[in-house]
Amino acid sequence: MDKLIIKGGARLKGEVEIAGSKNAVLPIMAASLLSEEESVIENVPSLWDVQTMVKLLRSLGAKAILDDNGVLKIKPGASLKPFAPYKLVKTMRASVCVLGPLLARLGEAEVSLPGGCAIGPRPIDLHLKGLEALGAEIEIDHGYVRTKTRKILRGTEIYLGGGYGSSVLATDNVMMAAALASGRTVIENAACEPEVVDLAKFLKKMGAKIEGEGSPRIEIEGVKKLRGVNYRVIPDRIEAGTYMFASAITNGDILIRKMEPGHLNAVIDKLQQAGVRVEKYKNAVRVKRTGRLRPVDVTTLPYPAFPTDIQAQAMALMTVTPGISIITEKIYPNRFMHVPELGRMGAKIFLEGPSAIVHGVKKLSGAPVMASDLRASAALVLAGLVATGETEVQRIYHLDRGYENLEFKLNMLGARIRREKE
Ligand code: EPZ
């Protein structure tokens, strides 16, 4: 296992390009199973999660080839296997996205239950509720979801809200299954995230009839067949947001290119409230610290509010912002694994239910810390960039799952990070 050693204190400056979106490409890869024909997906980030999905698609019987330029060719062919094993699903929850497409194409699917993860319990009841409403029979057996349908899936009206609001991947799964169902499906309380919109655009290019993506009501008129297509995935808004906080925390000046500023309005607003200058361009933002940081309160909520996937990075900034900031997590109330680790670096954070009360300190000091999930790991790297001395971020396979060339890109901006074997 690798670790990152970060020598703190460098001011980050320069330009960085954002890769394709992890959370858009994974469901799109699953959606390609809805057609027998080949789809070509461009702007695919080079990430472990993408490799895991490639393995899963191959294990289902599809041909999948990813080249060095981020072009992924997937040819599902006529005969797919309806089985997604635990060994692949357990390493990546997004594997559950194959459930809807397999069911719609083959009339059956057996997919391992993903289980919990470091950010807390992550049930899939809404996925199952949606597929059941479309006519699937569902059984949970020996850790697997077994689902089949006697006849073709039938469109219907489905309310997809849970205790924490809408669900991104449940909306994706139901939308994919409904694309090949008979008749009209209406998803109420659909997730509005840009990644859901990107999936809808991909499906529409394949020939699906979908309206309302990006709003809480999505309507899908089922079609008999979908075709293979060429598609370019949107930029990763979470990666872009992470570099925005990297600039802010290091008193830096970074131009973040090949991104979509409109996907990050809530993040830009918070940074501006914190006293950071953000200039928006068509496909770029420049993030520059001009003076003292100010404390801000952040509450994570579904899109277009502040994303849970940038909560930890925002917290890293608040640890060195004078005053008190309150960060409230409304999507995953236990997503605070980074708190004790930031504490080891001298941060003063008190947890109170789903809120973290952050008292800004003058400086963080480098320490060995342990990464627990993808975004928590990113927050520890950001903290390391500004800490005195060396910070050792252990177990960084989480970062490799979701950030393309993180230390390379940061080093190009002036950071001093090296990778070593643990
Ligand atoms: C997606 O996960 C993302 N993953 C997550 O990104 C992201 O944190 C999350 O959306 C929220 O934005 C991918 O896109 C691959 P949800 P997803 O269903 O769809 C509850 C990252 O770091 N819920 O929108 O699984 C759930 O527990 C990751 O890149 C149910 O109760 O998240 C949570 O409280 C981590 N029942 C809330 O809904 C369900 O059936 C929203 O989760 C499903 C979800």
Tally of separate domains: 2
Average pLDDT number = 96
Small molecules bound in the structure, each named once: ligand EPZ
According to DSSP, the number of beta strands is 24
Q: What is the class of the largest domain in the CATH system?
A: Alpha Beta
Radius of gyration: 21 Å
* Alpha-carbon distance between the two ends: 6 Å
Spell out the CATH superfamily of the largest domain: Enolpyruvate transferase domain
Q: Total number of helical segments?
A: 14
Largest sheet: 4 strands, mixed
Q: Your description of this structure?
A:
With 422 residues, this protein is α/β, with parallel strands linked by helices. The protein has two domains: 2-19 and 235-421, UDP-n-acetylglucosamine1-carboxyvinyl-transferase, Chain (Alpha-beta prism), CATH 3.65.10.10; 22-232, Enolpyruvate transferase domain (UDP-n-acetylglucosamine1-carboxyvinyl-transferase, Chain). It has 14 helices and 24 strands. The chain has a four-stranded mixed β-sheet with strand order 22-23-1-24, with helices on one face. Strands 2-15-17-16 form a four-stranded mixed β-sheet. Strands 4-5-3-14 form a four-stranded mixed β-sheet, with helices on one face. A hairpin with a 2-residue loop joins strand 20 (348-352) and strand 21. Helix 1 (22-31) runs parallel beside helix 7 and helix 8 (237-249) runs parallel beside helix 10. The protein starts with a strand and ends with a strand. The mean pLDDT is 96. Residues 23, 26, 93-94, 122-127, 162-164, 167-170, 191, 195, 308-309, 331-332, 374-375, 402 line the site of ligand EPZ.
